[in-house]
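Quick question, first post here. What does this chain look like in 3D?
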Amino acid sequence: YLHGVLKKAKMNDMVAFVDPAHTGASGCGNPTERARFVSNRFINGKSGLIYLVQYNSGGHWTLSAVNPDEETIHFMDPLKRRLIADEWKTIMDNSIKIYNAHKNKKGKKTIQWKNLAGIPEQKDSKTCGYWIMRYMKEIMEDKNLEFAAK
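> Answer (accepted):
Ran it through. Tokens below.
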């Protein structure tokens, strides 16, 4: 469904997806394998894309909108929790470092993480998947990609 929304909005050259079957905490490999998978998606994509990367920590979904060229990650948690320095942060930081190494780019000392506080909040304990899909749809419908300013 969301790929159809992306095509209808004519944003194929602006936004791309990363397969969540290779990013989650359970059954998707160790953190190094997951960082390599994500970095390969960046490497094989067009320069300048924003990648929507879903992550399931084992019982909860979050979304990261990643611009590997700018080394910026916008983090969205439907429960409005702030990102803590955990496995997901390490995986994403390493994926950008691998991407930079492939591009022979020095990169920044630290990857810039931004917690998006203006997103709608999940009010229960079971609908995080719905909220992640909603965030992705709203990002794809925003032709100016101003989602980070909301």
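The first strand starts at residue 15 and ends at 18.
The CA atoms of residues 2 and 133 lie 8 Å apart.
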